Target: Purine permease
Amino acid sequence: MKLEYEVDDKPGFLKSSLLGFQNILTAFSGIIAVPLSIAAIAGTNVSETSILISAALLASGICSFIQTRGIFKGNAKVGIGLPTIMGTDFGFVPPANAVINTMGGGLAGYFGATILGALLELILSFFIKPLLRFFPEVVTGTVITLIGITMMPVAFDWVGGGYGAENYGDPLFIGIAVFTFLLIIFINHYGRGFATTASVFIAMIISYIICIPMGIVDFSQVAAAPWIKIPELFPFGVKFDLRFVVPFIAGYLVTIIETVGVMKTLGTVCEVELSDADISSGVRADAIGSMLSPVFGSGAAQTFSQNVGLIPLTKCASKKVALFSSFILIIMSFCPKFATLVSIMPSPILGGAGILMFGTILGSGMQALSKAKFSTKNIMIIAGGIGVGIGITMRPDIVSKLPSLISALFSSGISGGTIVAVILNILLVEKEY
Model:
């Protein structure tokens, strides 16, 4: 593959703007889906949801700039210095649900746990090489698989119109979700180039437009929202409690593993040789981004792999284009009217997309597991980790009477399953025949 624009090439303003906006379209559904998920979990109103979406856009822009531009030098370097787009990560939605609802921390507890957990990722970014031995493919695959499985009930609640909704499961809601689901598949499978890459975004917009004449979209909130608003610091407050951090530990450990893989792939498609120090600086940018994001009201940040996949497709690896993307995201975050327009999107649309998005995560986990040897030891790790994770997801009250520390450790299916998988990997010795 020959790149049309290499890392240090600088396309003109118009080209950089258009290519930068293409990056945003590719990542947009991922950026907004997480704050919409958090809003549904926390039961926020339209105004509060728009704040979460604006904050996610702002945090994504700032974090993308840091990761792409790179700051500081030497062992303290933050950011890999290659074209990347960062955004809120789905892997942190299950622990967010545990903190907000199961543990009663609310949004303030969620943001506090995000910051404290990011400190762990920052520390571990200096020990990337030795840390990876605790996460072989069988453990990583088990954890990623669990993320997809444990989020599926959330997707189906969206399909039904939102958990607790008076008309939960209305056939109209299910029809909207099915239409969105099938439209994404159709565009992704039969589309070409950019249409395939942006299939989720395109399908959600089409479904949104179709919902308008049905009378289930209320634009009065959009009309009331201001055009311009300066973001607040800690709009939902912040609460630091070590108990709330526990469900996030697994998420941050998985983020490190995934980011290492994304960084290696990024180096390959950008045709740049990366050292262990470069990869560590990329993980460090994820950590710093996750510490900064809650200040504006957004969740933990991670480098988006879909934008890495866009580079060989467009043959554009220019850092300038990625930096333009970050500036556009920041500008978009200052327009509450736009954020409100997104926040009133009917939840069945998100449900139809969510089934595929969470299913894709599940598929990624299965793909990782397929690379592991299916030995007796590994089968026990998979069975134990996934079994415990699904069990806790289905029956979370089972751990409520355990000592507080243990209850916190197993407060979500993802954290409980990860702990079991890591421990089994350490304790079990492969049989020799």
In short: The mean pLDDT is 82.
